[in-house]
């Protein structure tokens, strides 16, 4: 599983939050979005933190985040070619779609040497739109490169709806791996020194992590009658914004029809390929 392996994550600190059991064991760690326009302090801190990172062979693509967090409707999420439908911000939606191509182009050659890629799961762990996007990009690249795709086993109350649509597509489970709490806490302290730790300050890593393997074709045969280990995280549920509540009736009907026709776990056809 660790032969010619790499971890690919959306943001700095994702690599240690969801993959602490293997972070120091893979050949490379690739971090996609280190630039956060609304938080220049994070951008500076991340660049400095990654320049002196405690784990070797960490690659920073230094891409700019779309700032799409909490801009999808997590109570009834709609999957798209580029990840999730970003319905709460037109500007974030445009940046999000643009980032899909940027990610694909940056990763297409970088992932060629690897046999095993570890990344976010289809529901974005606790529920992050950019985590879902990274999974979608790597899933697309898998078909051409042929590596084995492994995902983290974290989820939350916020992402549970999306998780339920995908979990039966699991075809392999790596078993249980002890989290490396010593290196995890060391990396957390490193990010905190650079003022760019974005998770809970009192976060306690679970005893073990498992990694899930998914079908390339999500519409194929699903796995039934099996136990799947999940690390469940409780997070504040997404608030329904005023903007979301005032979405025109026609738009809401279109979304319902879209979900009806494409069903759970299916990807709607993208109009702008």
Describe the overall structure.
By secondary structure, the protein is of the alpha/beta class. The protein contains 8 helices and 13 strands. The chain has helices at 14-17, 40-51, 90-110, 129-145, 160-166, 181-193, 242-245, 249-262; strands at 5-9, 28-35, 58-64, 79-80, 83-84, 116-119, 148-151, 154-156, 170-173, 177-178, 208-209, 212-214, 231-233. Helix 3 (90-110) runs parallel beside helix 4. The longest helix has 21 residues, at 90-110. The model is unreliable at 241-247 and 263-273 (pLDDT under 50).
The best one-word shape is globular
Strand elements, count: 13
Query: Would you list the SSEs in sequence order as H and E?
Result: EHEHEEEHEHEEHEEHEEEHH
Task: Work out the radius of gyration.
Answer: 18 Å
Q: What topology, given as strand order, has the largest sheet?
A: 3-2-1-6-7-12-9
Average per-residue pLDDT, rounded, comes to 89
Query: Roughly how much helix do the residues carry, as a percent range?
Result: 25-40%
The number of distinct helices, counting runs of at least 4 residues, comes to: 8
Give the N-to-C terminal Cα separation.
33 Å
**Structural class, judged by helices and strands?**
alpha/beta
Poorly predicted regions: 241-247, 263-273
- How much of the sequence is in beta strands? 15-25%
Profile the largest sheet: 7 strands, mixed
């Amino acid at each position: 599983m660790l032969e010619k392996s790499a971890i690919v994550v959306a943001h700095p600190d994702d690599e240690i939050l969801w993959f602490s059991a293997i972070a120091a064991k893979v050949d490379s760690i690739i971090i996609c979005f280190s630039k956060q326009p609304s938080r220049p302090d994070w951008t500076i801190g991340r660049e400095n933190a990654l320049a002196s990172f405690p784990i070797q062979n960490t690659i920073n693509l230094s891409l700019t985040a779309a700032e799409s967090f909490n801009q999808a409707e997590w109570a009834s999420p709609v999957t798209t070619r580029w990840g999730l439908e970003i319905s709460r911000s037109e500007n974030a939606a445009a940046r999000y779609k643009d980032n899909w191509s940027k990610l694909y182009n940056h990763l297409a050659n970088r992932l060629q040497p690897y046999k095993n890629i570890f990344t976010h799961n289809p529901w974005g762990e606790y529920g992050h739109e950019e985590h879902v996007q990274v999974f979608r990009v790597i899933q697309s690249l898998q078909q051409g490169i042929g590596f084995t795709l492994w995902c983290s086993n974290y989820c939350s109350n916020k992402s549970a709806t999306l998780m339920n649509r995908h979990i039966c597509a699991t075809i392999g489970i790596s078993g249980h791996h002890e989290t490396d709490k010593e290196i995890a806490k060391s990396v957390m302290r490193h990010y905190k020194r650079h003022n760019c730790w974005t998770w809970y300050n009192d976060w306690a890593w679970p005893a073990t992590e498992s990694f899930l393997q998914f079908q390339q074709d999500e519409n194929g045969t699903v796995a039934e009658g099996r136990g799947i280990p999940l690390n469940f995280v409780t997070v504040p549920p997404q608030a329904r914004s005023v903007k979301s509540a005032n979405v025109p009736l026609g738009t809401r009907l279109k979304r319902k029809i879209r979900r009806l026709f494409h069903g759970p776990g299916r990807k709607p056809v993208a109009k702008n390929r």
